Amino acid sequence: MTTDNAPSAAPLKVEELWKSQSETLKLTVLAGQGGYDRLVRVADINRPGLTLAGFFDYYRGERIQVFGQGESAFVSTLSSAQRMDVFERLLSSPDLPCLIITHGRDVAPEMQEECDRLKVPLFRSAFETARLIGELTAYLEERLAPSTNVHGTLVSVYGMGVLILGPSSIGKSECALELLKRGHMLVADDQVEIRHKPGGILVGAGNQIVQHHMEVRGLGIIDVWKIFGVGAILGRSLIELVVHLEMWDSKKDYDRMGLDENRTTLLGVTVPEIRVPVHPGRNLAALIEVASMNQRLKQQGVYSARELNDRLIHRMVGGPSRG
C-alpha cells in the first residue's frame, strides 16, 4: 500500500498565524495588516543578519524573518536613507510571509513605513529571540506537516504504535477492542490522521470530535474512556508497524518463515508491514501482540527467522552451529 509518495501540506495564512498564536507568542501587530493573506509555506525561520549589511546572495525570503537584539542594534546604526534602502530590498521578496521583532524592542519608523507600503505584516513579541524561534518552529512544524487520513485503527501495543488496516467489516475495531481488554491503548478508530514530521517520523491521531469512541457492529458507538478508563486511551502515537488484515484465501501461499520484510509507504515514509489472514479461530489480538514484540526485537537488530535459518543452513552443510 502506498499513500502520497510526494507529501505536501496546505500553506498557512499569516492571518491564521496571528489569530492562533498571538497570545501564545505574545505578539502585537505594528504594521502591514493589508498583507494578512500572505502565506507561510516552510517551518524554517530566518534571521537576516548579513542581509541587513547588504549581502543578499543567500537571502531566504520565503521564511518568516525574525529580528533579534543583534539585528535591531545594527539597524539603529544606519542612517535613515540606508534603512529605507535595505528595508525596501528586504521586503520586496514576493514570498516573504512576515517580520517579527523580539524582546519587545522599538521598531525603526522606516521599517513600519515600508511594511505598510508593501503590505508585509510586522509583529512585535515580548519573548526573547531563542524562545520565540523555538515555540514558533514547533508550531509551524506541526501545522505545516504533510498529512493524510486513512480508514483504519491505531493502537499502542507495548508502547509501539500499530496501524491496523483492512477492508470494511474485516474486524479492525473488534481486534482493537480485544487489545484494550488486554491492557493496551487506543489512539484512533475508523479515521486516523497521519502527519509526516521532520526526520521521517509518522505520527497518528484521531479526529477531535469522535476521538476515543469506537463503532462496534452489534454494539454501536462505545466510549472507550468511560468503559476502560483514562489509562486505555492515548492522544497520539508514532506509527512503527502496519498490520493489514485480509480474508483468508486457501489458494494463497502465505509467508510462514518471515525471512522477507514487507514494507509499505505512507506520506513518503516506509514502514514495516505484515499481512495477517483472517480465519475463524485465529486470535488476532495475540498475533498483533507478538508481531509488536517481534518488531521491537528487529529494531534492536534481532531477527529470529534469519538466525534460525542460518543455524539450519550451517547444520545442513556440516558447519558448526551458531547460537
Protein traits:
alpha/beta, Udp-n-acetylmuramoylalanyl-d-glutamate--2,6- Diaminopimelate Ligase, Chain: A, domain 1, Rossmann fold, 10 helices, elongated
Write the layout of secondary structure elements.
Blueprint lengths: L1 E2 L8 E2 H8 L5 E5 L7 E2 L4 E2 L2 H4 L11 E4 L1 H8 L3 H12 L7 E3 L7 H10 L3 E4 L3 H15 L3 E11 L2 E6 L6 H10 L3 E13 L3 E6 L6 E4 L3 E4 H5 L7 E3 L2 E7 L14 E5 L2 E10 L5 H16 L4 H13 L7
Parallel strand pairs: 1-17, 5-6, 6-7, 7-8, 10-16, 16-18
Antiparallel strand pairs: 2-4, 3-8, 9-10, 9-11, 11-12, 12-15, 13-14, 17-18
Helix pairs in contact: 4-5, 7-9
In total, the number of domains comes to 2
Strand-pairing-aware structural class:
alpha/beta
The span between the termini is: 36 Å
Helix content: 25-40%
Strand content: 25-35%
Low-confidence spans: none
Number of helical segments with 4 or more residues: 10
What sequence of helices (H) and strands (E) makes up the elements? EEHEEEHEHHEHEHEEHEEEEHEEEEHH
